[in-house]
Amino acid sequence: MTVREAGVGDAELLLSWRNDPETRRWSRTTDVVALADHVRWLENVLASADRLLFVAEKDGPVGTVRFDLVSDAPEGTWEVSITVAPESRGKGLAGAILAAGERELRRREPARCVLASVHEDNAASVALFRKAGYTGTEAAGPFRVLTKPLENA
Q1: Alpha-carbon distance 122 to 30, whole Å?
Q2: CATH of the domain at 107
């Protein structure tokens, strides 16, 4: 599994994954997003020093992993968000996507900790993050916050 920086040319693909009903079901914002709004969001993400958005690839694009710097947390804390492409679900790729994203985050930034906000009913995501070494169950509405200190931080 490899990750590469996302680009504006990925907008339609990323939007199709974002607007997938299963993706929206577990998101903080469940509304369908219009292309113009998504392109504007993507341009802002790509221009931000506090966000990293990667496309995961294994014989083509299979998902995304995004890291957002958390300003109201200890220095070096990032929040992760992961999406597995609908056509790539059920193939056991989520762990590899997450691991590749974490490696790239550590390569680029002095990251010390990663947070994952996971919907309390999303058993697959809870299991993914637990298997990857994330712990904790701090409640934040219908989302639980799991954390992982990064090695060599």
Answers
A1: 14
A2: 3.40.630.30
